[in-house]
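Re: the request from the purification team.
They wanted to know what the chain is likely to look like in 3D before they choose a buffer screen. I agreed to run a prediction and write the result into the notebook, where they can find it.
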Amino acid sequence: MKPEFENIPLVKNETKKRFEIEVNGHFAFINYGEREHQIALVHTEAEPELAGTGAAAAVVEKTLEFIKESGKKLLPFCPYVFAYIKKHPEWKAIVDEKFGGYDQL
């Protein structure tokens, strides 16, 4: 994660069902679904003003850390999150082994 994002807090916006960070009034976020033992990440997006800044990667990393600390298992349905885990295999440890694409990570 780029240093400029390290001190930006991750917000679990339960009303909008998304994890988000706010950068200069603009948002990068991941839509999620949650069950008792799992969190599914469905879609990652950064507002156009944040394109190319690393904000999307920052919100993914912060969200993965949140899931790890929660003790829940991850279902990475979002292609961006899936690709992020492939590039950073240390995060595979929090992916639910029952996830359909687990063997491709």
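For the purification team: The CA atoms of residues 32 and 41 lie 5 Å apart.
Please add any questions underneath this entry.
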